[in-house]
Each structure stands twice: as C-alpha cells, then as structure tokens.
Amino acid sequence: xxxxxxxxxxTVVLTGSSETGGGFHQSVTNLRMLALSAPExxxxxxxxxxxxxxxxxxxLVSAGALNRADxxxxxxxxRTVNDRVVASPRWVYRVARFFLAISGTTVxxxxxxxxxxxxxxxLVYFLSPAPMATELQQKPFVSTFWDIAHRDSPEFPEVxxxxxxxxxENYISLALTKAVLVVVDSAELxxxxxxxxxxxxxxxxxxxxxxxRALASGAFDATNLPHEVRELDAPYVFYPAQLWAHKxxxxxxxxxxxxxxxxxxxxxxxxGKDHGAGASIRKRIEELGVGDRIHxxxxxxxxxxxxxxxxxxxxxxxxxxxxxxxxxxxxxxxRTPVVASELHKAQLGKGAYYFDPDDPLxxxxxxxxxxxxxxxxxxxxxxxxxxxxxxxxxSQGETLLFDRLDxxxxxxx
Length: 413
Description:
six-stranded parallel beta sheet
C-alpha cells in the first residue's frame, strides 16, 4: 500500500489579454488542461495578474473544475515607488520604465512576484512568457516559451529597438536556466534553444499549439461575419495577425497586386491591433494601388473569428517568426485551405502550400494553386490529418508534463 499523497500546490499564472490573440487562447487551453486533467493530489490555484481571463476562469469554476477559493486575488497594493515604477499604468511610471530600460537600470521585485514568493504555493507555473518569473527568489517555477525570434530575425524593430533585444535575451537566458521545467510547443524550438543556450533537453516538455476552443469544432455563426466582409463580392484571403513588421502583411499586398495585374480579383482581410507598423503597411498598399482590396478590421470580437475563417478562400500565414503559429491550426479546424511561409513546414506538413516569404510572386502562385478544386480538397484533408497528429503529440506532452510535475512534487513539497 502506497503512502498517501500530500497535496501539491501549483499556482498557475496568467498574463496578457484577449487582444494579444493566439497566445491568450493558448494560455486558456493549457489552463483548462491543468484544471480538468491534473492528478487528484495536485491543487491548482490561479492568479490572473491583469484580471483579463475572468470569463474563462468563471466557466471552469461553474463546471466544478476549479474551486472559487483557488482563484487568487489579483489586486496588489503598490506600496513603494519601485512598485509604482514596475506596475502602475499611469503615464509617468510608463515613462520611468522606458528610461530605466534604456539606461540598463534594474528595478526591484514587482508586487505580483513578491506576492507569489510569499505565498503558500509549492510551484509557480507561468502559462505564457513572463519576465516576472525571473524575479522569484523563494519559489521554483515552470516557464513557457513560444519562440526566440529576437535571435532568428533581429532585423525587425519589435525585437531590436529600445533595448528590446537585450531585454528578451536577458529574460530568456535567465528563465531557461532558472526554471525547473520549460514548456515549449515544438521539437524544433527545443533544438534551437539547446544549441544557443546550452540547456539540457531533459528540462523541456513539448506541448504543441492548439486551435482556440471556439474554433476547434469547425462550427461558426454566419451572422457574426463583420458587415464590411459580408458585402464583399470577391474572394478574400484571411490573415489574423497584429500589425508588426515581422508579420509581413506587405508581402500579401504585393501578391494581391500581382494577381490584379494577372486579371484575378482577390481581396485580403486583416484583423489585429496596430503595434506601430500600420502606417508603413498602409503606405505601401497605396503605392501598389490595391487599397480598395485590403480591409483592416482592427481588433474583432472572438465571436467573429470562426465566420471569418469559414468564408475565406484561404488563410495566408506570412509571418517571419516561428517555427510555429496558431492560425494555421485554426484554419485546419475550420476546413480553410492554408498557404504559409516556408518556416512552417515542420508544423504543418502536407496541410499547407508553402512560399518564400520574401517573394510576392511565389505567394501569388500558391494562392492561385490553393483555389483549384482538387488542391482545396487535398489541403483540407491533409490539414485535418495534421491536426489529428498534433493532438496525439499534445496528449503525449500532457502525460509527460504531469509525470515531471509529480516527480517535482516529491522533491519540493
């Protein structure tokens, strides 16, 4: 007869907001997995740092997967000037944070990190990349990483300017070595991290990305299609991506210009917040003369996304960052053909047609190819098969995660 298991307290930390897109939904997916599938001797507590996951947490509480008492308070008293510099949303403290980062000056522990370090939890699990993790001094933690894009593509301003490269490098190198476990979404990322940072492979658990829950079934409500899209009288390619330079919206515009010159009538629908690249993207679109064919919807409600996928003639995943992204998996679930930049081959297999992300002619070619009836049938079939295979890998990764967490519970509880 085995010894009774002592409860192992894991505090799951959620950061970000729904406006960050796929990362937000992946955090929700993994929270649901932990709440619904963790062994009985694991006590899952949840800290929603910015209060942006309340609806998903309430749903899990209503379903009995979480206890209301295990939803931790997210209001932190800003007791010192340091606290305000680290955490306050007021503009004066945002300016202070900017100049401190430029000067390379470090500040003390954030209120949320101090709260975690002083809590009764045994382990802290960050469900998304969170620099706060490296502040912890008392509690062991699990880190989540999605990419090391600053190393792959340092030419883009979002990972290079205003000391962003240095901030990412310092955080990643420290968090990788300090974490007791590191959760990533692909074997390719594990290999990159091992080669660059020298972290042993036994520290990693691979759990692939998954479509957002609302998209996994392939169902949609046509009435949620935005009015501007509903009125289009031409096929459109869809690209849900924030307006960053690395997302490569410009290449899609150039491909549409080529298709226009060839006599093909295609539009593009872009959704996502503008993070500074919008003006230059729009300028290039106007230079190309395709402004009437490209539709910027900005941030749209989650309810509209399934219909936007379902009515699209194809998803175009043009990003330079990877090696994985979530929208192609959502397109698979929605039975929408996928064309993607070449860096996604390992993730998407036969489920997509690929193009050189620097070559708009190549993109125009694969968009046309994806519209052939036999090609559409083939892409949809292989996309669903790839999604099934990734779900099997996800199940294996989750089993390994719980095994590793169980072993840790014997050492640190």
